[in-house]
Amino acid sequence: MTVTDALSTASKPELLDKEGDRTLRGLLYDYFAFGRSLEAARETFAGFVGLSPTQYLILIAIKNSTAEEPMGVNRVAERLYLSGAFVTNEINKLVSDGLLEKSPHPEDGRRVQLTLTQHGVSLLIRLAALQRPVNDALFGMLTREEFKLLSQLLSRLASNADSALKLAEHVRATLKFQEDQQASAANLPESRKKRRTTLRNTR
């Protein structure tokens, strides 16, 4: 393996070019920069109406629910890629603030569905006046086809992200264990190293 190969941050041919992982790194730099802009926009939107960024996302997700697919706590958590316990706590705050209301699920009485109150609708109408020009500026340079493709690609990437993070933890633990084993072997007293060598030679 060459030094270039050893330094590469990906191995799948689809992610590499003649210059190694340069294109991948450039994509990630651009993605991180755009992600920071999205985070800043989200905080601006949320702060404009006195919400936390997560509460803002929850309200928007529930606004986009339909009668055919009503939003419950689990569905909101899945859509936002957040834990159910965290979402439940934030939803309870929004209910207490009069922005959301709970009602029995039409098909399962053990579950609840979430809908905006009139107060919640009024708040989002006020917010939309800020969102429209900002979202137009963020995405307006894309054609309709490019926008649809971006939406599809990000959906696929987001759905695979949890698996990638679990893999990261597993590989990290494995590499750390191997490094600890190597360090331990390197620090063995010389007499123990010789004894191990002698034992191996007599087997």
Automatic annotation (TrEMBL):
Basic residues: bias regions: 192-203
Disordered: region residues: 180-203
Pfam families documented for this protein: MarR_2 (PF12802)
GO molecular function terms attached to this record: DNA-binding transcription factor activity
Record-annotated HTH marR-type domain positions: 24-159
GO biological process: response to stress
InterPro entries linked to this entry: HTH_MarR-typ, MarR/SlyA-like, WH-like_DNA-bd_sf, WH_DNA-bd_sf
Protein name: MarR family transcriptional regulator
